[in-house]
Amino acid sequence: MRRSSDDRLFRIVTGIFPMLVLLIAVGIAFELSRQSMLSIRKFGLGFWTGRTWDPVSGVFGGLPFIWGTLYSSLLALILSTPIALGIAIFISELSPRMLRQPLTYLTELLAAIPSIVYGLWGIFVLTPIVRKLELFTPDWLKKVPLFSGPPLGVGMGTAAIILSIMVVPFTSSVAREILKNVPSAQREAAYALGATRWEAIKVAIGYGKTGIIGAIMLGLGRALGETMAVTMVIGNAPVISTSLFKPQYTMAAVIANEFTEAADELYLHALIEIGLLLFIITILVNALSRLLIWSTKQRKAPVYVFTAPAEDSVAA
Amino acid sequence: MRRILLALFILLAACAKTEAPPGGTAAASNTITINGAGATFPNPIYSKWFSDYNKAHPNIQINYQSIGSGGGIKQLSAQTVFFGASDMPMTDEQLKSAPGPVLHFPTVLGAVVPAYNVGNVPPLKFPGSLLADIFLGNVKKWNDPAIAKVNPGAALPNLDITVVHRSDGSGTNFIFCDFLSKVSPEFKQKVGASTSVNWPAGVGGKGNEGVAGLVKQTPGAIGYVELIYALQNDIPFGDVQNPDGQFVRASLDSVTAAAAGAAANMPADFRVSITNAPGKTAYPISSFTWMLFYQNPSDKRRAGIMVDFMKWALTDGQKEASPLGYAPLPKGVVGLEMQALGKIQL
What is the mean pLDDT of each run of 10 residues along chain B (346 residues)? Predict the structure, then answer.
C-alpha cells in the first residue's frame, strides 16, 4: 500500500502551494485594510467618489486615479489587441518557418525591457512625436472631447501608447501558444470543405476563442498595474477627462510618486487605501474576465468531435 | 543548464555567508555599523562623507539609505535606524509622536531654481509673487504685462505658459512651495507647502529629470529643479527677487548668503525655513537639509561616533560641499551647531 500513501503525500505537498497563494492574497487584503483604517474611517465610501487630492489640507479622494487607471488600460487594450493578435496569427499560421523563431524571440524581448527604460524612451522620444501630432491636429477635430486640450505631448494618449507596447508581448505569446495548440484536424477539415486560408484561420481563432480572450485579459492585468513607464508620460494631474491630450493620473503612479515622502499618518493611510482600491479593482476585473470566458464557453457552438483516438492517447 | 544553476546557487550561498548581519550589529572583525535613512537630495555628499570617514576610521561603517525625507522621519521614529535625514524640519506633531526628543542639525544647503523654455532670451527676472501667479495658473502667456514689466530687455513670445511641477513627493516641492506661500497669500491659501501639494495647473514630471525633460522639450514650459541639477545639465534658469528687492541669481555663494542672513536669529533647535531670507545677496529659494538624532540615544557608543563624525562633517567635511554642487554652511551656523552637539547625551 506504499503507493497510495505516496499519492496522498504528493497531494498534500502540492496542495500546500495553492493554499500559500490564497493565504498571501488574504494577507495582503487584510494588511492593506488594516493600514488604511484612518482614511477608511474618515472618508468612508466618499473615498471612491472624491475628486480632490490635497495632502496639505488632508482631503483625499481616489476617483481621478481610478478613472485614469481604467481608462488608460482600456485604451491600451484597444491599441494592443489587434497588433498582438496580428503578430500571433502571422507567427503561428503564415510566417515562413525560417522567420518564426526570430520573430517569437523579438516580440518576447519586448517583455524583458525594464519599464523605466520604456518611461525614459517615452519622455525623450515618444513625447515629442506625440506633441507634433497634437500640434497638427486641426481645430475642428479639437472640438471633439477625445482630442481637446493643449499640445503638451505628455498625457493619456502617450501613456496608452507606451502601455500598449508593453502589453503586446504578453497577449501575443499566449495567443500564439493557443493557436499552435489548435488541432490541425480543425484546419484540415476547413480546407477539406474548400475554405480559403483566411477562412481556415478564422476557424482556428474560433476554436481558441476562450484562450485568446484569456490572453487579452492577461494583458489587461499587466496594464492595470504598470507604474513607472506610465507615471513618466501621463502628466500626473488628478483630472477626470476623456481627452487623450490631457494629463491624467493612475493609482499605481500616485503611490509610486508620493509614498516615500508621506510622513503624515492620514496621508499614508490614504495612499495605502489607494493600494487597496487597486487590489479590489484588479480582482473585480479578473472576475469579470473569468465570467466573460465562462459565458463564451457556454455559448460555443458544438465542435466536431473526432472519435478516432490520437496517437498520444493510445500510448498513454 | 542545470550545472550553471548549481554553480549560481553555490555562489549565492557563498555570498550570503560573507554578508554582514543587518541592523547595525558589530561584526566579527570589530567593525561598527551605523545605519541611517532619509532625504535623497543630500545623498551624494553624505555618501562621500561616510566613505571618507570610513577611510580615516576603517572600523566604522556608516550606511545611508536615501529613501526620502518622509521615510527617514518614519524610520527614525520607529527606531529602525540610528539617525535620520530630512529636507524639511520635523513638525511639532511628528516630534511629539517620536519616542524621545529629536535634535536637528543642518548639514549643507540647497536651492531650487525656476527653469524655463522660452527660446533665446537673457536670464529672466521673477518677483516671488509673479512666480506664484504663474504656478497658480493666473498668468497664462509669456508676453503677459506682468512678466514684460520686470524684463524690459527680453523679446517675450506670444506663447502659452505650460507649468511643469514635480509629481513625486520631495523636499524640492516643499522648498519651492514654502517660498511661494511666503510671498503670495493666495498661493498659501490655495496650495500651501508640503512635500506633495495639490497643484491647480500644469503637468507633473517625475523627479528632477522628469521636470527637466518636460521643460526642455515643451516650448513655453516653466518648471523648477534643484540648483545642482540645473548647473550640471546646463538648463537655463531665472533670477528671483529677494525681500531686499534685489534680483539674485542662484549660486553656491548666494545660497550660503541666505543661510548667513538667517543665522542672526536662528532658533535653538535649528528648525528654520530660510526661504525668502533677508540680505542683499541672499537667494530666496534656499534651504538647509538636516540630520536628525535622538537627544538621549540608548546606544552611547554609536552616539559618540556620530558626534565625532558631525564635528568632522561641519568643519573639514564642508570643503567637500562646493565640488559636489552643495552650498557650504556659513561660519556662524557651524559655530552654533558645534555648541548644540553637546546636547546629545553620551
Answer: 51 46 49 92 92 94 89 90 93 90 95 91 92 95 94 90 90 92 94 88 87 89 91 90 94 92 83 90 94 93 94 94 91 92 90
Exposed / middle / buried, residue A189 (Cβ in 10 Å: 0-12, 13-18, 19+)? middle
Q: Above 50 in pLDDT, residue A306? A: no
* Count of A-B CB contacts under 8 Å: 102
pLDDT in tens, A119-152: 989 988 999 999 999 888 888 888 888 888 888 8
Q: What is the pLDDT of residue B249?
A: 95
User: Is residue A87 over pLDDT 90?
Assistant: yes
Query: Which one of B181, B203, B211, B217 would you mutate to disrupt binding with A, by most A Cβ within 10 Å of its Cβ?
Result: B203
Q: Residue B210 is nearest to which of A55, A123, A258, comparing CB atoms?
A: A123
Q: How far is A52 from chain B (nearest CA, A)?
A: 8
Could you tell me how many residues make up chain A? Answer: 316
Sign of CA dihedral A288, A289, A290, A295: positive
Distance from CA of A290 to the nearest CA of B (A): 36
- Cross-chain CB nearest to A263 (options B74, B191, B192): B74
User: Angle at which helices B300-314 and B331-340 pack, to 10 degrees?
Assistant: 170
**CA distance, residue B3 to nearest chain A CA (Å):** 24
* Cβ neighbours of B19 (radius 10 Å): 9
Q: Where are the beta strands (DSSP E) in chain A?
A: 53-54, 59-60
Superfamily of domain A23-299: MetI-like (1.10.3720.10)
Residue of B206, B209, B211 to mutate when probing chain A, most A C-beta within 10 A: B206
- Nearest Cα of chain B lies from the Cα of A152 at a distance, in angstroms, of 7
In angstroms, the CA A64 to CA A55 distance is 15
* Cβ neighbours around A4 below 10 Å, total: 8
pLDDT score, position A298: 67
**CA closest to B216 among chain A residues:** A124
